[in-house]
Design goal:
Blueprint: H1 4-7, H2 10-13, E1 27-28, H3 40-50, H4 64-74, E2 81-85, H5 88-98, E3 106-110, H6 115-122, E4 127-131, H7 140-150, E5 154-158, H8 170-179, E6 183-187, E7 209-214, H9 216-220, E8 226-230, H10 232-239, H11 249-260, H12 262-284, E9 289-292, E10 299-304, H13 309-318, E11 321-322, E12 336-340, H14 344-360
Parallel strand pairs: 1-11, 3-4, 3-5, 5-6, 6-7
Antiparallel strand pairs: 2-8, 7-8, 9-10, 10-12
Helix pairs in contact: 4-11, 5-6, 13-14
The protein binds pyridoxal-5'-phosphate.
Pyridoxal-5'-phosphate (PLP) binds at residues 32, 87-89, 113, 158, 162, 187, 189, 214, 216, 221, 226.
Amino acid sequence: MTLPADLMRPEVLGQPAYAVADAVGLVKLDAMENPYPWPGALEAAWLECLRGIELNRYPDAAAQEVTAVLRAGHGIPESAGCLLGNGSDELIQILITAVQGSGRPVVAPIPTFVMYEVLARAGGVPFVGVPLDADFDLDMDAMLQALAEHRPALLFLAYPNNPTGRLYDPGRVREMIAANPGVTVIDEAYAPFSGHSFLDQIGEAIPGLMVMRTLSKLGLAGLRLGYLAAVPEWIEALNRLRLPYNVNSLTQRSVVFAFEHARELEAQAGRLREQRGELVEALVAKSGIRRVIPSDANFLLFQVGEGQGQSVFESLRSSGVLIKHSGASGGTLADHLRVTIGTPAENRTFLEALDRALTTG
Ligand SMILES: *Cc1c(COP(=O)(O)O)cnc(C)c1O
């Protein structure tokens, strides 16, 4: 019998599949989801608008209506092209596939969103991680040196970063874009919670700049829709690698509906930004917490006492609260935990469980 090891590369087989924790029965604060469901009347209107979708037909392959809605809703510049993905994860995969033969690596400051490295590895493209400084901010000397030395095909900058929540200084980001001989992809997955974007910079002036967004963190994680904005030359080239019909009919129609009711989602994001401020204050006031990283996203990364990360994580889970132990594999993230901002009630439950975890841990 032919085994996977006979045909698949060791670096792929050596990599675990993306792990999703079982959250059944738990307060789910591990995945940066928007905790608010739609009000009942809105849900009813949405279900009504799904009527008549012909499931026997393929979706609109060019996803024209939803693309127009995204362009208008997010102010994608007229001169930019736009490619839709089944979540932004798929767009990262398309980008990496596109540069497979270039002989040039993917570079990103680390720690960051794991899929850049996972998908680079899967695609056989070398990945170079450049450590952030002790405050999880950019180490500019190291970044500029890496750009010069490795001449990346792709530089990924999660802006704000995951799992740290930090928004890098836009001037420094511009400096890196200018110094990067390859493409810079600004991943704005957390744009609804941050005050700054590079979306309006896409265009002829900076041809190597791309901006990636997703609707997942805004409150539509179940629909799986992301987009990449870049100059048309790049979008047309990348479109050759996109699977036909990668955005299904239900998603296309639902996103159009959601944007007709964008105010609801924006109001929810506003509430989460407010609750983020309250949660920071509550965490900073706790003696068992060593630091809370400033966040422009819908989550907070905080550090507990040395060697306590795992026990605090487990204690929270046995109290019914699931967060993410970002420091599980040690390194600079050791003893750091990441909590998604939930509803006020969920945040209270988390804080109470955390008090118990810190006193017993
Ligand atoms: C969550 C996340 C994504 C993935 O988004 P999907 O559209 O759900 O695939 C991409 N980038 C960053 C930085 C993220 O945190």
